[in-house]
Amino acid sequence: MIFRQCAPADPPRNCIWRYAGPPPPFAFSFAGLLYFVGRIMEVIFLGTGTSQGVPMIACDCAVCTSADPRNRRTRASIHVVMDGLHIQVDASPEFRLQCLRENVTQLDVFILTHGHNDHIAGMDDLRRFCDLHGGTALTVYTTGEGISRVQAMFPYAITERPVSKGYAAFKLVDMPPVLEFPQGTIHSTLLPHGGINTLGLVFTEKSSGRKFAYYSDCKQVPREAVALAQGAGVVVLDGLREEPHPTHMNIAEACVVAAEIGAPVSYLTHLTHRIGHEGWSAKLPHGVQLAYDGLRLKL
Ligand SMILES: [Zn+2]
Ligand SMILES: [Zn+2]
Ligand SMILES: [Zn+2]
Questions:
Q1: Contact (CB, 8 A) for 277 and 290
Q2: Range of the domain at 286
Q3: 34 Cα: distance to centroid of ligand 3 (angstroms)
Q4: Residue 239 domain-assigned?
Q5: Is the pLDDT of residue 134 over 60?
């Protein structure tokens, strides 16, 4: 076993697995080789904010006026790189700016977790990736609700090829329970989110066996979803705010789910302007942290 899980006090805080063999051979180890050829699963938090974003328009609260960059949250979205396969989850209203900020230049698979505006509004900017794929339609994996929202918002893009060079084109596909790629698998499960369901996603990289779960926008995490996430090195959970909410888990509910799943580290996302990063980080239970825009995890 060349890796061990980091102890909670181990710097850096985002390290989940660490080489545990004799020092100092990381650069010459199998792990080091994987790292340097870019074959370790990476998760980039493009956005970690709730639907209004943080700061919120016309709000002078302590979080909205904070100088801490971790309190500036664009709408929730992640980018996962699994053995070189680039998977984009959701396209927020800031999707283009998020791609530029995080230097996202490749996108192979797109998954829309559900059709709410804060996850779908940036989809027109996927046009650039249709172009980079030679003017072909990008497959959009989503739920039935997601399919009807894309049809309503982007009717001009439901086509096999862009109607004009540089335009978006989408092929809409029902997300299956398991998507298999040479680089790994993506399992999906349904999470209750008010009147609709959100796709909960679990990524497993084939070469390393590393597992990562993303459960944003949900009021509950059903037993099957808890079971599906077992063994993940990192789990991301919807943890909106301190007060209860009818369609999202609050921080206390998310902490209960984090304990049920039992991952070494759980990150909370979809955060409102009521959650100041520094103050709340100190109050969270062991193993639970707040995500922030630009956070990168190498699993
Ligand atoms: Zn949302
Ligand atoms: Zn505010
Ligand atoms: Zn939502």
A1: yes
A2: 38-294
A3: 36
A4: yes
A5: yes
